[in-house]
Amino acid sequence: MLREVENGFHKILRLRKEEGSEISITCFYEELRVIGFGEIVPLHSAEIKGYSCYGIHANHMDMTKFPNREDRGYDAILGELQRWKGSAHRARDNKSHSAVHDVKHCREKTSMEMGVKLGDDKGLTPRTMVEQGSNQFGDIRAWNRQVNQGDFYNTGFSPQATVSPETTGQYSYNTFYALDGYKRVPSTYYASNAIQQLHATDTDHKMAKLWMVPRTASRLYTGREELGERLAQVLSFNPSTPSTQQRIFTITGVGGTGKSEVCLKFAEDHRDEYWGVFWLNAGSIATAEQGYMDLGRRCGVAEPSLENVKSWLACTSQRWLLIIDNADDPEIDYSEYIPSGKRGDILLTTRNPECCIYNTAGSEPLGDLEPKLARKLLLRASSIIESRWKEKEKAAMAVVNILGSHTLAIIQAGAFVRQKLCTLEEYPTIFQQQRGQLLKFYSKQKPSVYDNVYTTFEVSAEYLQKSRLPESLDALNLLHTLAFMHNNGISEKIFQRASEYASELKDSGINNDEEVLALSMHHITRLPSYAQQEWSSLQDLLRWRKACSVLESLSIITPGNDDSAAISVHPLVHIWAKERQDHQSRYRAWQSAATILALSCQGWYSYHPFFSFLQPHVRACVSHNINEYTQHMSDMEAAQILFQLAYVLDIMRDESSLTFLVQCIRLRLQDGFGAKEETTLQIKDFTGRVYLQQGKFQEVVDIFKEVAEGRSRMMAEDHPSRLASQHALAGAYEANGQVDEAVTLLEHVVKVQEKLAEDHPSRLASQHALAGAYRANGQVDEAVTLLEHVVKVQEKLAEDHPSRLASQHALAGAYEANGQVDEAVTLLEHVVKVQEKLAEDHPSRLASQHALASAYEANGQVDEAVTLLEHVVKVEEKLAEDHPSRLASQHALASAYEANGQGDEAVTLLEHVVKVEEKLAEDHPSRLASQHALAGAYEANGQVDEAVTLLEHVVKVQEKLAEDHPSRLASQHALAGAYRANGQVDEAVTLLEHVVKVQEKLAEDHPSRLASQHALAGAYEANGQVDEAVTLLEHVVKVRGKLAEDHPSRLASQHALASAYEANGQVDEAVTLLEHVVKVQEKLAEDHPSRLASQHALAGAYRANGQVDEAVTLLEHVVEVQKQLAEENPARLASQHALAGAYRANGQVDEAVTLLEHVVKVEEKLAEDHPSRLAPQHALAGAYEANGQVDEAVTLLEHVVKVQEKLAEDHPSRLASQHALASAYEANGQVDEAVTLLEHVVKVQEKAS
């Protein structure tokens, strides 16, 4: 029977076609199997050849049930029904009595032809529906009533096959026929709901009448609100001002960023504004043309060809939206798929930025989601309940970061977590280990069109592989090469430099097969073809740029925003570009990338700005499996490449990457592997340079000794390489604290080089180095003399010659060490001025600014020092957080902050530096130096306990250094100072006596030896050993008498000796010496800190000498000058404190109280137990007592004594406060309390003695 029905129906179709009134049919078929039965009606049975056929994502039983209105099957059927309704209304308007008669006649005739009588059984669910003008009830209204009443069965509807209306002559026919199958349908969510919605009132135009959209927007749709608002604005419809042109908006971006989702969301949100919404898959010519044919059939176009449908859209008066999706193929002219005229709105999505030329209403490059929105999307995709989002924020951030905020990748990651394959916290680790597999993962429920990220990107690669254009092959090779560079800042200059040097190498005819420091002809063969020719030819340059253009057209790369010709690759595209390659391809691509980088830096062995571009790419290249990728290269060829890359990392101070690379080189070329001795020495020499950066000074000395001894055996005494090795060894000696050995060896080198011309660069370099050793050895005069000679000789060089500027820089440092600070500042200002033509971030320019800031600080120009160092630190923010130069500048800025009274800022900055340096070895000199500096900042900030603890740690770590190592002695010196500040005066004296003892082997006038003696004298004075302090300081002053009269160190010692004289009761001597110091310092600026400090001290001596008026006058001058300092500056507050003491001694008690109350008020922001805060409170209590405010004095001193209970029982400051409180008690009539407290003080002091 069914066969007869089928044959009869096909006969009708054939007859109607022959009559010229062809029936248009849309078929629907089941996509899923019925469990236990399988496929009921196969596709070949459901479809009719030559007619459109759509799948319903359900089995045979559930084809008429839809979960919600967003289901794509529901949308497809509703679109057909909407079209019928439009035809039915037109038929109703035109019908007449004769038309109805003809309709009935036609129905009866057709029924007879098919041999099937239509039944009225409400249990029937017909499988095919033919729509031809009217219906079996004879009146469309009756059919509408049936539908609206829910009588779905009697309408004869089923979504198995739908036949659309045709107009034949004067009449329209709508007749429905049951063809096969009988089945009752459960009442869950029937297709009749769609029909009921369709046949609402005639004024209901809230939904698009034609809806040809493949799916709904994802339920996870997140963000893109601004783009959505922009689309709504530019595509908005205003009947009063009709559009003068067709509105086309293009959305560009790499695959998987959500271009299609944006269009789906816009279509859904604005569906009510359009008569029809159409979706066109433009991924290929075939899909685009098929899409237009389907569109034409849905719209009733007689001959639905591409041109006919475009013409129909151009002519229709209805408002429509056409979404042209996946317009990615650079070889397709997509203008052919854009209807002409002014009608309609078009959204076009593409990976090809060139398609932006089609836009008439705007375009938008769709990038990655903002991090905040990306995290939100990830958490939603992971099905993590919103109440837990806050606790998962950090883990989500880590996942988003490694995925580059790529939309589809985030959704995939969320699905991976949602399926409990890992936790959010575990995902980054798993991704690093299994990147390829995770990029290919996708959820089986509502997957993306491309399923996963890998497939999304692979679409572009497949295009390149299929294309026959030469630039496509170049583009694919370039893509594979880029996978082994950093994904950002890939400069054309890198490839251009590599090509140019390769050409030079070929022209030279030198093979360099045995020279590890050079590249050979073998490396040129590793280059991709577009880089093997010299780029002086425009054609070759264009070949590279064409390859880039192809990749850009597929959104695989993104051009930079400037004229640097730099490109970037999305992080996930970058990962995919490597993962898609097989082993052989990876070998070739890595070797190409490494060779390009090595050739591009060939010939540069000192800093060049180009290295800033190169460094991230070298680091990325060497982070891969070098041993695996070089296994098909000879040891020498591999080592030659690695050496060039290592030089870049060495110059850029990239220690972490460099260490691994040096290990690889040493494994490939070392003794026992057939390498020449000189090659082995070159490897060791370079290894020593790396270790020098890492602070492994003893290892460096051992390595450089081997190199120097090896070259001494092989080479003449004056051979440049032999002398260079000795020069390097001397530098290692100096770094290791073996300064005498450094001086001796460099004096030898300088002596040997006397036969060279006076201006020979090597001779001058050795003299420069010897001057540095002299300075480190305390022979500052010799250093100055030698550097002045070098600078004089180099005057014939250009003013901006790097060597000349470096020598001037060094001479300025020697001037500063020699107390010639003005000369240092002048010379460094000159150097900085000359270097202004260098790039702002050039290391030499920044180093000179750093040095000038140090000279400013030494010269009392602390504000200038802070300003300049803040600039340096700001510029260096582009360096890695742990870059040595960046940390050194932060270290110096902290020192300037401390000198400027910004103790909190100094501590904060140094704590950051110390934190960053935790990755260094515990005994790394830079790490210990920063801890040393932080301890100093703690001490200056009143955090004395922290200072002691940190310095004890530093001293402990440095026990492995030689006893007389300068760094070890300097830390012990500093720890003694912290002990003294903490009241541990005995420990300070003991430690400084040890330091002074060890330094007896130094020259009598060595600055470090004298500085330690100076410090020991201060500890003696604090410990009550005033005679010893005076004797030691008189010795220091005597030795320093050979320094210039205004040398800061000489004046500082005289200052200290005057203090000891005053403590020893030799007040006249103190006054005389300080007056001399103040007189000498008159040449300093009025506000120079050292000058003001000396005037402050002289006022104290005046007061001790009974010259109170002179003390008041001098301190009032100091306080006036210091008004330019910040209110809370420690030096300013100290002077006000001292002036208040002078006022009190002068009987001006009210003024003393007022000034001290101000000081105490300002210092309230300090910690409660800060020594500088407690001292003014102590003094204010004394002023209160002198002013008769005894109750206030007692209250304040009781507070001070209470706060100081955390100090050691015998701490001098604690005992002094208790003593003062006892005095206040006595003045207040609390004699018993006074006696008790003083007995306690005496007892503690007896125990201490």
Would you give an account of this structure?
- The chain is mainly alpha-helical.
- Helix content is 59%, strand content 5%.
- The protein contains 54 helices and 15 strands.
- The strands form 4 sheets. Strands 7-9-10-11-8-12 form a 6-stranded parallel sheet, sandwiched between helices.
- The longest helix is centred in the N-terminal third of the chain and has 23 residues, at 72-94.
- The N and C termini lie far apart (124 Å).
Brief sketch in words of this structure:
By secondary structure, the chain is mainly α. Helices cover 59% and strands 5% of the residues.
Would you spell out the secondary-structure blueprint of this structure?
Elements: H1 2-19, E1 24-30, H2 43-46, E2 52-56, H3 72-94, H4 97-114, E3 129-130, H5 140-148, E4 161-164, E5 167-168, E6 171-172, H6 191-198, E7 210-212, H7 225-234, E8 247-252, H8 259-269, E9 276-281, H9 285-299, H10 306-315, E10 320-325, E11 345-350, E12 362-365, H11 371-381, H12 393-402, H13 407-418, H14 427-433, H15 435-440, H16 453-466, H17 470-482, E13 490-491, H18 492-508, H19 521-524, H20 538-553, E14 557-559, E15 566-569, H21 571-579, H22 583-601, H23 610-622, H24 626-629, H25 635-651, H26 655-668, H27 677-693, H28 697-714, H29 720-735, H30 739-752, H31 761-776, H32 780-793, H33 802-817, H34 821-834, H35 843-858, H36 862-875, H37 884-899, H38 903-916, H39 925-940, H40 944-957, H41 966-981, H42 985-998, H43 1007-1022, H44 1026-1039, H45 1048-1063, H46 1067-1080, H47 1089-1104, H48 1108-1121, H49 1130-1145, H50 1149-1162, H51 1171-1186, H52 1190-1203, H53 1212-1227, H54 1231-1248
Parallel strand pairs: 1-2, 3-4, 7-9, 8-11, 8-12, 9-10, 10-11
Antiparallel strand pairs: 1-4, 5-6, 13-15, 14-15
Helix pairs in contact: 3-6, 9-10, 11-12, 11-13, 16-17, 17-20, 17-22, 18-22, 22-23, 22-25, 23-25, 25-26, 26-27, 27-28, 28-29, 29-30, 29-31, 30-31, 31-32, 31-33, 32-33, 33-34, 33-35, 34-35, 35-36, 35-37, 36-37, 37-38, 37-39, 38-39, 39-40, 39-41, 40-41, 41-42, 41-43, 42-43, 43-44, 43-45, 44-45, 45-46, ...
